[in-house]
Amino acid sequence: MSVRLCALTTCLHVIGHILALVLGYYLYNLGMVTVGTVFMIFWYTDMLFRPLRQLTRQMEDFQKAAASITRIEELTETTTQIVSAQNRLLNDGPLSVQFSNVTFGYDPADPVLHDVSFERSGRILGLLGRTGSGKSTMSRLLFRLYDVTEGEIRLGDEDLRDLSISEVRHRVGMVTQSVQLFRGTVRNNLTFFDSSVPDDHILGVIDRMGLTDWFETLPNGLDTELESEGGGISAGEAQLLTFTRVFLKDPGLVILDEASSRLDPATESQIEKVVEHLLEKRSGIIIAHRLSTVQRADDITESR
Question: Could you tell me the residue range of the domain that residue 58 belongs to?
């Protein structure tokens, strides 16, 4: 309907201007009007069609809004296929990770991971591989965004499927190259709007990560307002916020998925110091496609 209305409006607009020009030309030849009057006829004709154009745009916006509402309703009605278990808690400290014959595919008929097995505990694993080799898929499985098709993933000696989703996401911290920030204060972005986290704890974490100098550049400290998607701050500052956010959770396993791939060398050097603090006394998985990014890893393996 929107396309038809737009086409009709365009046709009427063109026909109206043609009639105005023909009428103006005819009256001008008869000596009944001047050139200025012909222009006024053409201008008034254009003004008559402006409300119609506005109405057409509003109809298009209304149809887009209606379609968006329909998609949102479909999304809210979608139920998760991930079953959250209860009453299983992970131990404090570094978490061991074990993949046992794991096979997984977003489309079950086209697996991304084939019979993957490895085990690491209290060490930093560097995971290299080309784009599309399944590196990020492993991190999503560990964060329990999906469940494995075959095999088993154990986290801290517990089957991932026997743990509650909230426990997994509290004890596993993940930083990706895509920074997700919200419109709100620095405090709210670090705590995910959890008012129970005291300011002293937040400032202590910032100090332990060596970010005090950067924090002092913020105009209003923790009350500094941020725009959505990190507007108003640099990419490096936004990434520093995500590292601090993860550190506040005190996870036992930290996953860095190409966390510094979009940063300039100077900012990446600063991030490297923060990563060193973040990975201290924790298990870690560093996902990258460059060997230089995983130099701090204790073990390096390749995803094919």
Answer: 2-76
